[in-house]
């Protein structure tokens, strides 16, 4: 999609976002006639707006939801987001790195997942201090 098309998609999205489903369907049929890819892109953005994910929750609830089980000596098998920890690959001062697999059946993927230690913060100069 080129920048001009993207500008149109954003404009259509902002116009359609507060419409009822019926109004939206008629609006997009009229505005995207002969441009099914543009209509699909607008519909995709509208669907994404209605979907909640991890970034839609306050950080504290995300921490409780995802990270509560990983502070054990053996977190293998723990699920974090879309991934399940398989085994520890290494550790250092900032945290641990695990081999993980995609666990949501969307992809068959093995990744390295780094889990940072909680309670570590840095100042503007990169110096560390505990929570």
Explain this structure to me?
The chain contains four helices and six strands. The chain has 131 residues and is of the alpha+beta class. The chain folds into two domains: 3-51; 57-130, Phosphorylase Kinase, domain 1. Strands 1-2-3-4 form a four-stranded antiparallel beta sheet, with no helix packed on it. Strands 5-6 form a two-stranded antiparallel sheet. Helix 1 (3-16) crosses helix 3 (36-50). The model has no long low-confidence stretch (mean pLDDT 80).
CATH class of the largest domain: Alpha Beta
How much of the sequence lies in strands comes to: 15-25%
Alpha carbon gyration radius: 22 Å
Architecture (CATH level 2) name of the largest domain: 2-Layer Sandwich
Give the helices and strands as they follow along the chain. HHHHEEEEEE
Helix-strand layout with pairing:
Blueprint: H1 3-16, H2 21-31, H3 36-50, H4 59-67, E1 79-80, E2 83-91, E3 95-102, E4 110-116, E5 120-122, E6 128-130
Antiparallel strand pairs: 1-2, 2-3, 3-4, 5-6
Helix pairs in contact: 1-3
